[in-house]
Design a protein that fits this description.
The chain is of the alpha+beta class and 244 residues long. Helices cover 23% and strands 22% of the residues.
């Protein structure tokens, strides 16, 4: 009886000693792993990734199409515009500045009749002129009433560089022409053909400088098969693409 009690006492003492040793080792490890004052941490920070919408019970992220720019396109976004060569069109916004004459300076849009109206100048035609040509004309007109006028004309918004798509397409309407666009590109922009579109009888209506209208035919079936590729011409400002 006495030997059994002695045996159990030894076992309890051994277990208690083991527990104390384990606790002391853990405390020592925690002290060793804790950063010491002045020491440089070698731990690399891990990036925190945003939770996905699926993990939060939402729908899977879907790339959204970039909407087309509005027709009021700032001139800074039209790489081809040059004061010496750009031809002013209907709807373009012009900033007319007369040095030291703030009452004569204004921002104005070209009217549908191609004219603009300015103080002391009155009506003057802007359509068909370059900014440099228009400022020369304004300078000549103001010379009669202002001493040594210094006029600057800047195109601040380009609205005349656009074309129209009409007929059996999903998104007819006016589109900005701020970069080279072919007929195939224009069809893609319009969302493609509707069910009853006559793909072999597409045509472009183009008005020449003398006012005459030209009808340019386009056979979509031929072009997508690699035939008569010369039909896939570049769209020009004020063209109308018709899909019957």
């Amino acid at each position: 009886m006495y030997s059994r009690r002695a045996t159990w006492a030894k076992r309890i003492l051994m277990l208690a000693s083991a527990a104390l040793l384990a606790a002391g080792g853990a405390n020592s490890y925690a002290q060793d792993s804790a950063p010491q004052p002045g020491a440089v941490s070698t731990t690399v920070a891990q990036p925190v990734l945003p939770a996905s919408s699926e993990a939060n019970g939402g729908a899977k992220d879907v790339a959204r199409a970039t909407p087309l720019p509005p027709t009021d396109v700032p001139s800074s976004r039209v790489a081809a515009i040059q004061p010496e060569s750009y031809v002013i069109g209907i709807g373009d916004g012009l900033d007319v500045s007369v040095w030291r004459e703030p009452e004569l300076s204004k921002t104005i849009a070209v009217r549908p009749d191609g004219m603009i109206s300015l103080p002391l100048v009155g009506e003057i035609k802007a359509v068909g002129l370059t900014p440099v040509q228009l400022q020369n004309q304004l300078t000549a007109s103001l010379t009669k009433v202002v001493s040594d006028p210094q006029v600057t004309v800047i195109v601040v918004s380009v609205n005349s560089l656009s074309f129209n798509i009409m007929g059996e397409v999903y998104k007819p309407g006016y589109y900005p022409l701020t970069k080279p666009i072919t007929v195939l590109d224009a069809i893609a922009l319009s969302g493609g053909f509707r069910d009853f579109a006559k793909e072999k009888k597409i045509y472009i209506l183009r008005t020449s400088a003398d006012g005459k209208q030209q009808k340019i035919r386009f056979n979509y079936k031929d072009v997508i098969k690699g035939r008569n590729m010369q039909q896939n011409i570049l769209i020009q400002p004020r063209d109308t693409l018709v899909v019957p």
